[in-house]
């Protein structure tokens, strides 16, 4: 494995690092696992249903880790779009109830794709919390290393978390629409290449209409991760892919996907590599694709 820790400014940590710091009193480790279960029905607007990863957590997790249910704990369940971000004050309150305070260091990981951990990393960033990091490889790498796991439930005591919201980290469809013909904005789709092309055969599905937001580039999050180890690709390879589409020449970058999850990984990398103005379209195609007034293109129509 290539050690990405230094290249990513310590926002991505290795299992070796975590093993050395596992008993730090201010450390808070969270299993962020969520599952998207594929819907085979072609009539369904949403290709997936959400399933909590709590059962996986109960079977095995990192020692001392608590569990975060992204949908129930940190999302606006009254919204018609899953995973919609809460208002900043409420979000900070929820994080505080989970045990995250101003002086804690947070390690986030998933038992599957790391995008669940990067989504929560991005949510913390929106309220001004910068003491969070993502465990490279998650539980997969931890177990590959032969390290012990636990079945003991951990619940951290509530903590006080100060809210220092950052404006512009989450954007809506109006901002995305205005960016389509803006040469100073680079819009990136983090979904799989077949979904971006609008040519998916049903394996992954679409969100009401196939295709992508016009003039958006494709950097699939699944291609930034080693599927066998769940580790990120070497930092220079990821950086190169983002440079290839002109992301760093743009004044503003907007990332999107199906529901603001995979796009958080792309957004995180852009920030860690130094881009000063990165936004995530929170509702993404879950909102965009069902609004017939908003444009979408496929490889056959673009």
The main β sheet shows up as: 5 strands, parallel
Bulk shape:
globular
The oligomeric state is: single chain
Q: In CATH terms, what is the fold-level topology of the largest domain?
A: Oxidized Rhodanese, domain 1
CATH architecture descriptor of the largest domain: 3-Layer(aba) Sandwich
Order of helices and strands: EHEEEHEHHEHEHEHEHEHEHEH
Mean pLDDT: 92
Q: What class, by secondary structure content?
A: alpha/beta
Helical segment tally? 11
Low-confidence residue ranges: 1-8
Look at the structure and give the CATH class of the largest domain: Alpha Beta
Number of strands: 12
Question: Please, how many domains?
Answer: 2
Measured by DSSP, the beta-strand proportion falls in 15-25%
Give a quick rundown of the structure.
By secondary structure, the protein is an alpha/beta fold. The chain is built from 11 helices and 12 strands. Helix 5 (115-126) crosses helix 10 (262-272).
Describe the protein.
The protein is an alpha/beta fold and 302 residues long. It has helices at residues 15-21, 54-59, 70-74, 88-97, 115-126, 138-144, 173-179, 193-197, 235-244, 262-272, 284-288; strands at 12-13, 27-31, 34-38, 48-52, 65-67, 105-109, 132-135, 170-171, 185-189, 217-218, 252-256, 278-281. It has 2 domains: 12-144, Oxidized Rhodanese, domain 1 (3-Layer(aba) Sandwich); 170-288, Rhodanese-like domain (Oxidized Rhodanese, domain 1). It is built from 11 helices and 12 strands. The strands form 3 sheets. Strands 1-7-6-2-5 form a 5-stranded parallel β-sheet. Strands 8-12-11-9-10 form a 5-stranded parallel β-sheet. It has a two-stranded antiparallel ribbon with strand order 3-4. Helix 8 (193-197) links the parallel strand 9 and strand 10. Mean pLDDT is 92; it is low at 1-8.
